[in-house]
Sequence to fold (196 residues):
Amino acid sequence: MDTPKILSVNCNHCGATLDVDEQTRFVTCAFCHSRLAIQRTDSAVFTEVLEKIEAQTGQMAGNLKVIELQNNLDQLDREWTMSRDNLLVSGRDGSRGEPSIVGGVISILVGIVGGGAWTAFAASKGAPPFFPLFGLLFMGGAVVVGLISIIKAGHLDATRGDYETRRRQLIDAIDAEKRRQLGQAGISGGTDQQTR
Ligand SMILES: [Zn+2]
Fold:
């Protein structure tokens, strides 16, 4: 006796009872026309709507895409914070702040004017060589600090511009991906209603 057994399964979409033979793997519901896959476990036989399975897989892939983009965004933010920290300069009160071109120029001017005046004054009074030399050292130090500040300010501006562009692109990509998913959900919702 090799006649296939007939099984009763319920459509997972509309709940109708469907008779299928035990070897059948796919069936179209006679009532709602859903395409169904017949799933078997040791203890149960049940159906899954194929369209629904596909939609979930698509949605999961979409969610992964959003998660990946959000991870990229976090990474970008971390990288920016690190680059920025490396470009901060110590202010006069010892706190770390963003370098500025104006600050650099002021530092150079103060160095040249202050150091120059000190040196000229010390030299004109015939002070021991240490005193005019100190003025020159001060001048040199202030010019170097000022130049570093100006270079870092330029670098920080460029890095920030780059960071903001990439950040906008990522946020746009995340928005686009979310809209695409919402669009898909809307379309599959529409088909659901048509089949009912
Ligand atoms: Zn059905």
The first helix runs from residue 50 to 87. Confidence is low (pLDDT under 50) at residues 189-196. Residues 11, 13-14, 16, 29, 31-32, 34 surround zinc ion (CB under 6 Å).
